[in-house]
Design a protein that fits this description.
single chain; 435 residues; 2-enoyl-CoA Hydratase, Chain A, domain 1; eight-stranded mixed β-sheet; 15 strands
């Protein structure tokens, strides 16, 4: 009996020493805070992944994920959730204000879930174009919510009620409505472990290390999130399309509209590249498409396969830069509509109308400048040769025996300086071909 007592006492002593040692080790480490704010998208995922790896490499004692989001993409939320679930480092999820939609899944993934007073969690119905997603997506999403909740010792059915209006839980939900829980409700029904007024209170209450490392987004991560936002992306696309179209239509030297268009496209692709939505291939595809369109307009007469391939390449690159095809169509459709409005406003604006004047021959043909008067017969130029003073696209000006004559071609483009021959004079219309 004495030996047994001694062994039990020794065991208790060892356990006490181990607990004291583990507590000291925890206190000696650092508390890493990783904020999850804004849209749950790929740019946020890249930041969270980087921040987590840094915490892991620096042997963080504990990680607090501070959540304040209305949600975002399901696939991204699942990646973040899986990272938290697989973490060997103790994890705390602190809902600073709200964990709505995809954010609710992430919140449930923490080993310990705490909510601020007035905070909410739930309303996680998957939606597409304003409508509830199909039953396959809904079934998968409900299963994920349930499995994560149950893995953390929480009620899987309540988690499913976040996403499905047909799940009724007496005292919590109303028929036909999604479940969104307050902080007190979440604690009462075991979906959260407590209510904390602040991160500092959380750290004190749970005895976490007071040395705090708060992870922050880099300039590139902030820029990628901003530039890849659907609204900002749409605006950049609209400016890019309008700028390039106006520049091509005015057929003048490269100017403000072309520069604005190229800068907008550059920012669009840079944001999505930094966010990890696209690779170099999509950017190259866009550049090839743009070159093909320019060749079709300025080099190859008419409109054929080159122009069609160019347009398809540009559209394909824009689709590849979006998180999914649906988002791509919405952004592209809205951008095209906005671009048309920009072009029309530019056409009607007096300050910019002079740029469009390049499309027509609006200047006066003064005799003092060497032009032939409209009253004179142009038949005398039939069969004569001259030199193109401007690029004929297909209209332009040529020099015949020291006189400037406005002419057109049969549709082909002729470079300035080329030798031409008058092949037809019809009324006031002088038609030439390149020699």
């Amino acid at each position: 009996m004495k030996k047994a007592k001694r062994r039990a006492l020794a065991l208790l002593l060892i356990i006490g020493m181990l607990l004291q040692f583990s507590g000291a080790a925890l206190a000696a480490g650092e508390t890493y805070v990783i904020p999850i704010r804004g849209d749950i998208d790929n740019s946020n995922w890249l930041f969270i992944e980087r921040a987590y790896k840094e915490a892991q490499n620096n042997k963080a004692a504990v990680i607090i994920f501070e959540i304040d989001t209305y949600g975002g993409y399901i696939d991204t939320a699942i990646k973040i959730t899986d990272l938290i679930m697989a973490s060997p480092i103790p994890t705390y999820c602190y809902v600073d204000s709200k964990a709505i939609s995809a954010g609710s899944l992430i919140a449930l993934a923490g080993e310990t879930l705490l909510i601020s007073p007035g905070g909410t969690i739930g309303a996680a119905e998957p939606r597409l174009l304003g409508q509830t997603a199909d039953y396959k997506v809904l079934s998968m999403w409900k299963s994920k919510l349930s499995s994560v909740a149950e893995a953390r010792g929480r009620d899987g059915q309540i988690a499913e009620a976040f996403a499905d209006v047909d799940i009724f839980i007496e005292g919590l939900t109303e028929p036909g409505s999604l479940l969104t829980m307050t902080a007190l409700q979440a604690v009462e029904y075991g979906m959260a472990d407590g209510v904390c007024n602040s991160r500092a209170e959380l750290i004190e209450e749970y005895g976490l290390p007071t040395a705090v490392v708060e992870m922050e987004k880099s300039f590139q991560e902030k820029s990628s999130g901003w530039l890849s936002d659907p609204w900002i992306s749409g605006i950049l696309l609209a400016i890019g399309i309008a700028g390039i179209v106006i520049e091509l239509l005015t057929a003048g030297s490269f100017g403000l509209f072309g520069a604005a268009g190229l800068v907008s496209f550059a920012l669009y692709f840079m944001g999505h590249f930094w966010a990890g939505n696209i690779g170099v291939g999509a950017i190259l595809l866009f550049m090839v498409g743009l070159v093909l369109i320019v060749l079709e307009i300025f080099v190859i007469p008419g409109f054929g396969i080159t122009g069609i391939l160019g347009i398809l390449a540009v559209l394909a690159s824009l689709v590849l830069a979006s998180p999914n095809f649906t988002q791509a169509m919405l952004t592209l459709g809205g951008s095209l509509a906005a671009a048309i409005i920009i072009i029309l406003i530019t056409l009607r604006n007096k300050k910019t109308r002079k740029l469009w004047g390049k499309l027509i021959l609006s200047h006066k043909l003064e005799t003092s400048e060497g032009y032939v008067s409209h009253d004179e017969s142009l038949v005398m130029y039939q069969g004569k040769r001259g030199k193109a003073l401007t690029t004929l696209r297909p209209a332009g000006t040529i020099d015949i025996e020291g006189r400037r004559v406005d002419v057109v071609t049969m549709g082909e483009f002729i470079e300035a300086g080329s030798a031409v021959e008058v092949i037809l004079v019809e009324g006031m219309r002088v038609v030439v071909r390149e020699l």
